[in-house]
Amino acid sequence: MDSEVEASYTDRADEYIALLGSMESVHRSDRQLVSDWADQVEGPILDAGCGPGHWTGYLSTRGAQVSGIDQVPAFLKHARTRYPGIPYLVGSIDELPLASRSVGGVLAWYSLIHHDPDTIDRALDEFARVLTADGTLLVGFFVGADIEPFDHAVAQAWRWSPDAFSERLGAAGFAVIETHIRFAPQSKPRPHGAILARRLPDR
Fold first, then answer.
1. Fewer C-beta within 10 Å: the chain N or C terminus?
2. Does 44 sit behind a cis peptide bond, omega within 30 degrees of 0 on the bond before it?
């Protein structure tokens, strides 16, 4: 997330938290997918780009050893108040302040949507670095026919085709396990995608 995007989220943090900063705003199929994944993770989980911390808090209530990281201090202030006792770090997912092979799972739920095709590999490489040899990554993203920008409410974001995203994951040292796509009968919400991938042990 660049400084302009960070500033945009900071300016609209209260609005974002009110609209999207709780598990009540989460689609039931997303909750089930993330829950099923987290239950299979061996070791700590990193909520990468945790925002206001609702997913971090939710996973903690399910017994996961979880921490969150985000670049927006206003989000983390809310997270620490609403979900106390969970470690939250201020930092970039492009340069994680974690030791290599230190987490069993990374959740990147819509936290890559503002990374353009020229910068997304930085974050994917960092996820691969901090994951254990057989750790897993679960990514949520907006689906498009190809890699294409669109006007997001906060800042420019990107849609990815599942094939294009899977290709980038492969280049970063991941093997895709499964892909999920959800379409709505109307134009909103936007088509949603999720990819579960495992870190290749020889990375």
1. C
2. no
Q: Cβ(156)–Cβ(149) under 8 Å?
A: yes
pLDDT at 189 over 70: no
Q: What is the H or E stretch that residue 192 is in?
A: strand 192-199
Asked whether the beta carbons of 160 and 147 are under 8 A apart, the reply is yes
Average pLDDT over residues 27-40: 96
pLDDT single digits (tens) 84-121: 999 999 999 999 999 999 999 999 999 999 999 999 99
State the Cα–Cα distance between residues 73 and 97, nearest whole angstrom.
Answer: 16
pLDDT at 33: 97
Is 194 within 8 Å of 141 (Cβ atoms)? yes
Q: Which residues are CB-neighbours of 129 under 8 A, at least 6 positions away? A: 96, 100, 101
Q: Which of 67, 203, 66, 56 is nearest to 134 (CA)?
A: 203
Residue whose tokens read 């294409």: 148
**Cβ pair 102, 134 in contact under 8 A:** no
Q: Give the domains, in start order, of the chain with CATH numbers.
A: 3-199 (3.40.50.150)
- Cβ proximity of 56 and 47 under 8 Å: yes
Query: Cβ(176)–Cβ(124) under 8 Å?
Result: no
Q: Which amino acid is at 159?
A: R
Q: What is the sign, positive or negative, of the torsion defined by CA atoms of 76, 17, 3, 144?
A: positive
